[in-house]
Design brief:
homodimer; 418 residues; alpha/beta; Molybdenum Cofactor Biosythetic Enzyme, Chain A; Alpha-Beta Plaits; Maf protein; 3 domains; 6-stranded mixed β-sheet; 5-stranded mixed β-sheet; 17 strands; 41% helix; elongated
Amino acid sequence: MVCEIVCVGTEILLGDIVNTNAVYLSKKLAEMGISVLRQSVVGDNNSRLTEMLMQALERSDIVITTGGLGPTADDITRDKCCEVMQTELVLDEDIKNEIENYFSSKGLKMSESNIRQAYVPKDGVVLKNNNGTAPGFAIEKNSKCIIALPGPPREMKPMFEESAVEILKKYSTACFVSHNVKMIGIGESLMAENAADLLEGENPTVAPYAKDGECLLRITSSGETKEDAEKKALPVVDEVVNRFKEFVYAVDEENIETVLVKLLKKHGLKIALAESCTGGYAAKRITDISGASEVFDCGIVSYSNEIKNRVLGVRKEDLETYGAVSEEVARQMAEGVRTLGKADYGVGITGIAGPLSDATEKPVGLSFVAVSDEFSTECIKIMTGRKDRDYNRYVNGSRAFDAVRRKIIRRYEEQEEL
Amino acid sequence: MVCEIVCVGTEILLGDIVNTNAVYLSKKLAEMGISVLRQSVVGDNNSRLTEMLMQALERSDIVITTGGLGPTADDITRDKCCEVMQTELVLDEDIKNEIENYFSSKGLKMSESNIRQAYVPKDGVVLKNNNGTAPGFAIEKNSKCIIALPGPPREMKPMFEESAVEILKKYSTACFVSHNVKMIGIGESLMAENAADLLEGENPTVAPYAKDGECLLRITSSGETKEDAEKKALPVVDEVVNRFKEFVYAVDEENIETVLVKLLKKHGLKIALAESCTGGYAAKRITDISGASEVFDCGIVSYSNEIKNRVLGVRKEDLETYGAVSEEVARQMAEGVRTLGKADYGVGITGIAGPLSDATEKPVGLSFVAVSDEFSTECIKIMTGRKDRDYNRYVNGSRAFDAVRRKIIRRYEEQEEL
């Protein structure tokens, strides 16, 4: 079974918006074992959309469209899908009432054009939109299937999960599962080298990936059922986790900050952050997570030597002797903010994020990240060799969070195992 | 003249990467007055790519491809473009030498497969790759044009700017220029209402857009030359700027933080930030800008009442009486951090970012943003009505930066005009 994705919208062709719908759908379909042959984008144009849909249906079993389901005259996906599937639009009274209720609940008057959205294909199934007014639909006819989803991602994604997946299941030839074993502190090539035997496997396959400051091994298996596929994947996941030990910060978790906040919560611990080059980015990432206030009270962005000294207590003579970007200063920042914030763990981050170097001879991409608890302070030296400010600032935060994670695990979890 | 964009790469169809090349090229082509009819993505598959290119050339005058120019066997764009344009590949000795030098300069050995990249179309023009080894090319034949660019954006974009633009100029029917007048503190519908007469214009066109916490009017004009187009746009840009006065924070500048940092630099001023709900996000945005250390020394993330009191000096009784999310607390945060950081302007941000409410009865999306200088402190109350944590945190920062911008302008720039 093969599938094509057709995204409808002149605004995509004008480069006004990035087509994130295509990447989302491709990923989800790959997980279901449905091959995507093409992604296409076409404007809100009658003849071009008709031509596109006709050709797509000739080549593929399933066509998934996004966009063009709104109330205005240039929203033509509904009409064109019916045309190519040889069916017609009929008024759905329930949907009409729902749209009317949606507007009156917001104290707004429904315009005539909104009624357009209550027309649905006669031979189709309506897909409910729980996050907007435009319903989607599916038409299955003559061994072909069209599924039409709305354009806005926050309407499209839930509709896909809640309704389209159920329809697509019968086209799925196999079940696929993927697990990502995520690592910090090891490079992609070394990781791949140490996993060389696993990379040759066929079911599951194991593939290395790298992204900013971290890398991962993705284990993907297929089976007749999801359980069947899981059974094949899990021993390899375990093997990878055991082989890479302390480098592994998560299996499938979104990111290191999520992992760290969970770990701090689990042990009832608090963290305080002192940032120089990251300038609040580390605190931002911790507080991205709702409920971070349980584990985080105090962050200091000390972007000058004077603030490092006066607020965090870094010694003036060390700032002069070693410079702001030094192990000594990182350690004192970590210790200072731990005391000031009355936290269990203090973090100090200082570095040269770039793109330009500072007045010293230190290279862009050099950073020191220190982590302090009541017993000791440790410091990592990082040299990314890159002049990319965003990258350097992101990596510093990730390495700091990972260092705290390792320190907590050594103290609270490895002890327990003895 | 119409154009299609064909992106080649199985990894895009698998949803492993977002296709940012398509949005970049679409935007650039629109600016040149070249209409993009379709964007397509196809995998690294011989027959499918050939079919795609044949169909694209039938429909369109220009086809721009990205990807598939690498050294491995699944990089097939070179071969397929030659096939559909009825030409052949020939070895280019200069490129071969360049690739050899590239590898030896990095101390690496060139593999045999890299020689593939030195083959270029016999009837084509080579586009130099200054950021990688794979050259691009253009073939113009029988009133059709194919331009092949590499897949990695950091190679593709410079090659497009440096070489492809020159070739495409002759297909451009008109020159387009666009200017964005960006505003904070006014809603999109009110903005559109007040610009109703301008929205009816044809050259330039004026279109309203909204994005997180701000909105803009885009003025787009066309002319035979760029200067000609500019001449048509500028009076309308001036009219919009004059009409919306203090709401306008920039014309074409990237964002409010860039505008604020420039304004602070211009007047030799420093800002200090006290953040609760934004949790470092505002400081992160200021320090995203290289050179921010000229205007920013001190940021405090006070994520608990205790830190608000002990570090920033917010009165305990006010925290108890009014709660952390209140005008009183925002004002004291702004004043406290101004004093602590010895800055000209102090900012205090406190709110309920969501998605969940706190223990009080205050609604998610409620925030107070205060700005303090040596003479006065002002406070804005924000109610976004949204539960989206990212959105609320972003908007709070933008509104705070804009409030500082307005306060500086009132004090340092409007006085001068008297």
